[in-house]
Design goal:
The chain has helices at about 5-10, 20-25, 35-45, 50-55, 60-75, 95-110, 125-140, 150-160, 170-180, 190-205, 220-225, 235-245, 255-260, 270-280, 280-315; strands at about 15, 30-35, 85, 120-125, 145-150, 165, 210-215, 230-235. The protein is an alpha/beta fold and about 325 residues long. It has a single domain (about 5-310), classed as Alpha-Beta Barrel (TIM Barrel). An 8-stranded parallel beta barrel has the order 1-2-3-4-5-6-7-8, surrounded by 8 helices. Helix 2 (about 20-25) links the parallel strand 1 and strand 2 (about 30-35). Helix 5 crosses helix 6 (about 95-110), helix 8 (about 150-160) packs parallel to helix 10 and helix 8 (about 150-160) runs antiparallel to helix 14 (about 270-280). The longest helix is centred in the C-terminal third of the chain and has 35 residues, at about 280-315. It is globular. The protein starts with a helix and ends with a helix.
Length: about 325
Amino acid sequence: MLNALDSLKQYSVIVADTGDLDAVARWRPQDTTTNPSILLSAAQDPRYRAIVDASMDQDIESTLDRLFVAFGCEILKIIPGRVSTEVDARLSFDIEGSIAKARQLVSLYENQKIERKRILIKLASTWEGIRAAERLEREGIHCNLTLLFSFAQAVACADAGVTLISPFVGRIYDWYRQNKKVDDIPAAEDPGVASVVKIYNYYKKHGYKTQVMGASFRKIEQIMALSGCDLLTIAPDLLEKLSKKDGEIERVLSPEKARKLSIEKTPLDHQSFLWQHNTDAMAVEKLSDGIRKFDADARKLEAAVGALLKKSKAAA
């Protein structure tokens, strides 16, 4: 009998949401995602000190770039697919800065003989991040648009031709749970789950090539409610729970079902994007909060690396 995880793999590509190389090796996902929060934890782990030490360069910024790429390269030795590497959150509203940083990261990967098809550059789903991704995609640099909370963000990403989006189920769930002052919201009523369903059906109905990767899960019920989504990025603790849940699960989402639905196409220009996103209080708050939190963890990582760099220079 299949367990829930094996059953899920029949319908969706499973992605590990971790920088822990041992966890990646254990679960053997197709792809893996990273971000500053994940790398902060990994960089402080004694098991990976050699990777950190080998990434030391002349300044903090270049050391961080080398560190992100070093962990990405180690992950790619284990998995068959792609790794997502994130652009600094401080560039979330800087089109040219985001493009320059993405090119720098890809160049570092290519210096390690990693092909572009195995790299996804993660950018925040701001208007500026989406515009940067649009230009990068034309250069053959594939992008993963993260911190996605509103339908307007999803539409703009698809129209820009980005490779992948990561709608954040769990953070949407958190906002509504706190707003309603309840301990839980069942998966059937979960606004985070409903958001991904709406985006997936819109994409498949209108033939967009952009892939949907449900992300930021709080419980396995949310994941199972999205079986059939193109990709699902799952933390190791939830992978463990899915592997221990016996029985097959049914496919919920499919292109065939979506194509039968009546869904109007709604392309957005800059003004309409800003307005529609602004009408969603949850999305406005969570996008801003997400950028701040990624930046805070990036600054902690920066401080930790700075201390190591200073120590390394003193010992030289």
